[in-house]
Amino acid sequence: MTDPLTPLLSTVDGTAVAARRGDEDFLLTSGTTARGGALPVRSDTRFEIGSLTKTFTALLLAEMVARGEVGYDDPVERYLPRECAPRAPITLVRLATHSSGLPKLPPGLWRSALPAWFTNPYRAFTARDVLAAVPRARPRPGVRYSNFGVGLLGHLLARAAGCPFEELLTARVLRPLGLPDTGCAPAPQATGYWRGRPRPPWEIPGLPAAGALRSSARDMLRYLTAHLNPSATPLERALTEVTRPRVALPGGADHLCLVWNHRARPGHELLFHSGGTRGFTSFAGFSPRAGTALVALVNTGPTLRGTFIQRSYEALRTLATLAPA
Question: Domain named Beta-lactamase-related: which ranges (predicted)?
């Protein structure tokens, strides 16, 4: 069983890999939480998970829809001040399927991001800046991955509930699923590195729903296991909703669910997503039909030539292929 997992471990970086196959859980760790004699990585070591945060935001949306508090087809302007309405009609589900037409980053971000591009490019961009960017954006038809879109979705859900995003996510998703290591607070966590240099903790105050969470391999495996068996959780309806294919991608075999990527394969399907900050890289995926799940976390930031995410995807595919029918 460990063969697909051990190639993901590093002797230099801090790495945590966890998997489920059938009724068995597997967890491997290597390295330390920081270079130079820090504590060894454990199952509860917290990593920045970057864009994997978006899958939690999607689950929060589905949970609030299940309660009747919002609707997938609600227009975003219902939850925005009048002066912040978008130029074209956008619904909540469009934000969660990257089909709103909004750009990847909100207008105005670049000016504040460039001085801190290699450390904390989002640090100076506030919630007020995000709302001000909505009427400035020019939506274009089609599917475009958008940090702006999912980050905006988090603001809209918080405004609908009258509660800050992190408090809402904790109450509705993290606590019901039993995820004590998961949250936006930076401490405690492993030290992140980019090209061998330590990076400061990631700050994304304006778009927390797009990339602010930290989590552990232990929590992430529990989170993925909930997606494999929704009926064993308090969020059965929401967990079922987030895995339903909604938007077809070019080629026909791949779809977008609520944030999750869905790829059909003979005998099984794969749902997956990845994340990255300046100091961390993450991957999570699962196959409901094969009863398998995999999370891989490392405390080095992604690079153009990095292979961690691709190797993690291949390990997930191998697990799903090897799973008993």
Answer: 13-305
User: How far apart are alpha carbons 284 and 295 in whole angstroms?
Assistant: 4
Distance (Å, whole) CA 256 – CA 233: 23
Task: Give the containing element (helix H, strand E) for 112.
Answer: helix 109-113
Q: What's the CA gap between 95 and 12, in Å, rounded? A: 38
Structural domain containing residue 153: 6-322
What would the pLDDT profile of 135-148 be if each residue is shown by its tens digit?
A: 999 999 899 999 99
Residue 1 within a domain: no
Contacts of 161 (CB under 8 A, 6+ apart): 64, 69, 168
How far apart CA 194 and CA 302 sit, in angstroms, is 8
Tell me the CATH number at 221: 3.40.710.10
pLDDT value at 11 more than 90: no
pTM above 0.90, yes or no: yes
| Residue 301 domain flag | yes
